[in-house]
Amino acid sequence: MRLPRFFSKKRGHRRTGSEVWGSVGEALFHAALVVAGVAFGGLLITGIAVPEWRINHDFLESRGRVVGRGLARHVLDSAAAAEPLWQASIRLRYEAGAEIVEAWAFDGPREAARARALERLDRTRLGDEISCWYDPTRPAYVVLSRGYNWWMWALTLLLPGALLAFGGAGLSRSLGRWGRSEERQAAAGRRPRDPLADGPASSHGHPGVPSCEDLVNSPGTILRYRLPIESPESWNLLGLGLFAALWNAVVVLLAINAGLDLLGGRIDWLLLAVLVPFIVVGIAGVVAFARSLVLATAVGTTQLEISAHPLRPGGTYEALLAQGGSGAFRSLEMSLELEEQATFRQGTDTRTERMVVWKSPLAAWQGLQLAPGTRFEARATIHLPATAMHSFASEHNAVHWRIVIRGRPDRWPAFTRTFPVIVFPQAVGEPAA
Questions:
Q1: Is the pTM of this model over 0.70?
Q2: I want to staple 37 with a disulfide (CB 3.0 to 4.6 A). Which of 63, 149, 163, 410 is the partner?
């Protein structure tokens, strides 16, 4: 049995290779998110949410007499030098149905300072009658107060919910594409989004040629049309932003609750133990989002307008480039490219091969200096050869035309921005555009 390759081959501008390992890694990553969401949610629900809900809904109220008092000593670490936590404890005698029960109940939270726990303990005297609530299934389990720990409920809903939402959506997408060629995905209604193939399957009167309706719905300010930009980085930026916002919302809730405890002179060590790694992950998420945002916006926006669309073989067109941002650019280049794409199967592997088969430089600028609040504008002429292949899209093959802008700023990484265009076939007897 032949194993799929870990890495794709590269021959010049052509890339081939199996997508199996990439799909496996993506599926495992999203499955890990789902498992983490289920596990963490299960721990929070069974350990905190369900017991708290039962105390507020199932426990029965009674009146108890204080027959004993003391301090409970809790040690979180088995080491001898570990600092203990103290908690006021009350022994009650109360009626639980038809029987009289004596049991200990904790009064208030655990305190790092023994004096604060003693202060709370002194509020109750031997012989006092106080309200209590006991578990009808275990009458010896009694509490002195009821209520909800809202920060923990928010944590229970937000964090596992975010993990399940991101992981479940990604896992569903990965499994939906598993072992399916592009044509099978299309037949099942799950064809990957192609900006050139949105809208009708083909242009009116030109079978197999993608429609350009979505490429001519934005008028230009100087030339006739403003072309849309292909920007897969925007989805990554959106995903990082949503993750950072949801995660840090949980961190804020945890931090507020920890701050209120500290102002009240209490230290919840369990809460602090949960808060520290959450803060680390939250900061990492914000840094990753900020870095992606800076890289996406630091060099400014790139806009491209064109005098006519769709294009025709043998036609000549005018393009207007507008590059925003500030600082120096070592170079800025514009080119017209033709890319062929083929999707096929080899055994159980689905392979997609892409290759730029034709490229024509349109214009190039060197040593640009952009001032803040301004943008660089320049025109270029596009001439399509009379023998140029028209745009084409099918289940197995595609021919994509695009205008590509490549820039090399001084202080930022080089960038490439792509603007798809549609080339219609030349009609019989029709003169060149």
A1: no
A2: 163
CATH architecture assignment, domain 60-145: Beta Barrel (2.40)
Alpha carbon 255 to chain centroid, angstroms: 23
Instruction: Report the candidate in 365, 370, 364, 227 with the shortest Cα–Cα distance to residue 304.
Output: 227
Q: Which of 44-53, 372-381, 398-407 has the lowest mean pLDDT?
A: 44-53
Q: What confidence score (pLDDT) does residue 419 get?
A: 93
Q: Would you kindly state where each structural domain of the chain is located, as residue ranges?
A: 60-145, 302-421
> Could you give phi then psi for residue 131, rounded to 5 degrees?
-80, 145
Largest distance between two CA atoms of the chain = 109
Q: What is the pLDDT of residues 150-163, one digit of tens each?
A: 666 666 666 677 77
Structure-block tokens of residue 352: 């997609």
CATH assignment, 302-421: 2.60.40.640
- Residue whose entry in the numeric block shows the structure tokens 């709370």: 120
The residue with tokens 């604060």 is 116
Q: How far is CA 324 from CA 321, 327, 332, 369, 377, in A?
A: 10, 10, 12, 11, 9
Cβ proximity of 106 and 89 under 8 Å: yes
Q: pLDDT digit string (tens) for 95-106?
A: 988 889 999 998
- Average pLDDT, whole number, for the chain? 78
